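Retro notes, structure queue

What went well: the backlog is down to a handful. What didn't: a couple of records were mislabeled last round, so from now on we paste the full input next to the output in the thread. Example, using Cytosine/adenosine deaminase-related metal-dependent hydrolase from Aliirhizobium cellulosilyticum:
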Amino acid sequence: MPQVPQKATGTTAVYGSYVLVREEGLPVVKRDQWVVIEGDRIAAVSASRPASADHVLDRPGRFILPGLLNLHNHCFSEAVARTHAEDGGGRKNSQSVVYSVLLPLTKSGIDILTPEERMAIGRLGILQLLKGGATTVMEPFRNGIPEMFDAALEMGLRFYGAPYLFSSANPKADAKGVVQYDVADASGSDSERDLATWNTIHGKWHGLDGGRIQVTMSPHATDTCDPDLLRAAHARARELGVQVTTHLAQSVREVEVIGQRYDGRTPAEYLDWLGLLGPDLLAAHCIACSDTDLDLMAKRDMTVLNCPRVFARTGKTAAFSRFAEKGIRTVVGTDGYNMDLLGEINAAAMISKIVSGDATVASSPTMIDAVTAQAAAAIKRPDLGEIRPGATADLTIVDMTHPHLQPLFDPMKALVALANRANIDSVIVDGRVLVENGGYTLGDEAAITAAGSAAIARIWDLPEARAAFAS
Ligand SMILES: [Zn+2]
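Corresponding output:
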């Protein structure tokens, strides 16, 4: 087992020129406050400096936010495929690269890399996430990379790991772009094997380090999971009280495939038919959902994970405002692109304004809420989305003294419109200061980056990896 960082002890006092609190349910910026942490809890928010503290973060111009939550992210496959899918790379006949390239590539990584090499890629991904300001991440990944849990445990990130379940051991698109399910043999079906693997992973990691490590149920998508698997996964999740995350209506092709397989149902109707569309479901993308689907999804009180940039690269994407205006709880994640959550909420706001033709939609407070209070509500941890006495001490602190942020008239608008990951000053999870002054505190950043890059290079040595991206 990896080393778990020491529990936070004593008192940490953090000075914020600006502190985001909530008043009457809305985010409000208070000036010149001290946030006092005792152990893993926020003890006080006060205008007066505490008489004593074991650790003091006192620098001017800092904006203290509740820790940012990135609830849809793939840091392993993103690191492996980095820059290869840009400018249409790997895209055959304008098809998505998910089934033709990304899933097979990650499978190659699982087949040829050692556990230590996979751990090195996991560490690189998590370092990137922490330096990007995330305190909580929901991360779906192939179930052959349990090292992701070890890396998260060691590095202090709050981690909702979501090992995939598929109805096919090796999901790959056929010539028509369709993923076929495997047929059960004497030893059972791939669905059953994946659910068994998920249960083993849940038993080993769920709840470690005082609940910081969580295991989320993660049937991969509507077109890779058959009805029996979806029903079984949902039933098991309900039994354990864990949430379900999946990919929904990622493409027009997926809508066609589900319609053909299941009596004309849309992907959202398919999930609803099986009982999955509800408050415990977090569904990524939903790009090809119809307006009728969105009405149904709003009624079922589920959460949409809007990740606009990964799709924007392909020339089409979904606007945050399209879902939010229907009354659906909508949060923002980075999926397999860049993992700069501040950059992502900026893009989500911009794309919403372009698509709606209205500058007032997706306002700065709305976008900040989407990655703090709304996201915390989506995982039923409201204490993670708010700075108040008694809440868990997860904080993201942004340095607003940079020249592109000064003079500073409106901190929330500056954060969404102008700031980016390079402005992250400190990241605190469970009271542990994991990033301070922009640097990771628990390890050697250069060594983590070099080891992760070397492991990824081994995948790119495979002829099939290079062939997938040959033009
Ligand atoms: Zn995804």
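Agreed that this is the format going forward. Reviewer comment attached to the example: The CA atoms of residues 191 and 229 lie 6 Å apart.
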